[in-house]
Amino acid sequence: MKDHDLQIRKDKATLAADIVDALVARIDEALQQRGEAHVVLTGGSMGEAVMQAWSARPADDADRSAVHLWWGDERWVPAGDAERNDQQAVDAGLKRLGIPDDNIHRMPAAGGSYGDDVERAAAAYASELAEFDEADTNGLEEDPAVPTFDVLMLGVGPDGHIASLFPQHKAQNCTTTTTVAVHDSPKPPPTRISLTYPAIERAREIWFTVAGADKADAVERALTTDDPWNTPASAVEGLRATVWWLDTAAAAKVPSNDAS
Ligand SMILES: O=C1O[C@H](COP(=O)(O)O)[C@@H](O)[C@H](O)[C@H]1O
């Protein structure tokens, strides 16, 4: 069993609310310490639940002009398509957060500036990430050209995938760039863009956000094995912390799964 921080809650709604409380605290801390905050959103069911909980918080007058949002992966369909992770975030309340549009770093869409060229689109997102690469990493080792993310959230599929890195899929082998175009995804839609492992691991904190009984086996494998090829969620750790935010159903096969 890995020495990761386990945060287990009784249900998905409580889980999402507590994730958001912790996220807002991390963002405030990053703004105070470094003057800006970089957060990576996940798509999927927990991406939606977290965004709903975040956008439902009472409005405050906090300055969010230095908060940047990124995505860990995106589905290669046109802008505005309900399958897109960014569109699901918008539908869940993204625009109510008060974060400037220029700081919301969406992955390119099919049929947009890069037409149907998903490779070029992935490379363009890598360039956008590189614009926020810092020279001063506050003592952390520097490597891939991405901002050092303060919190990078990852949903986990029932198969153990994270972002759009799927079990036994060759996109996992891409370690020389920070983004990868994913073809033949086993989960629809078949074409996607994903951060690669080196980019994902450039995060002070990685937060796995997982709810539901169908994820319990994947969570157990991720916490007890080091086998990225078969369970991508077993592959990554944050630079300072790795936190598993689980509801009791997703934590069913994890030892000491006391909910609060
Ligand atoms: O397709 C995707 O799936 C994963 C997991 O989503 P879930 O709905 O099973 O929770 C998600 O993390 C990823 O961002 C998304 O593109």
TrEMBL record:
Its EC number is 3.1.1.31. GO terms for molecular function: 6-phosphogluconolactonase activity. Residues 11-244 form the Glucosamine/galactosamine-6-phosphate isomerase domain. It catalyses: 6-phospho-D-glucono-1,5-lactone + H2O = 6-phospho-D-gluconate + H(+). GO terms for biological process: carbohydrate metabolic process; pentose-phosphate shunt. Keywords: Hydrolase. Pathway: Carbohydrate degradation; pentose phosphate pathway; D-ribulose 5-phosphate from D-glucose 6-phosphate (oxidative stage): step 2/3. Belongs to the glucosamine/galactosamine-6-phosphate isomerase family. 6-phosphogluconolactonase subfamily. PANTHER family: 6-PHOSPHOGLUCONOLACTONASE. Hydrolysis of 6-phosphogluconolactone to 6-phosphogluconate. This is 6-phosphogluconolactonase. The gene is pgl.
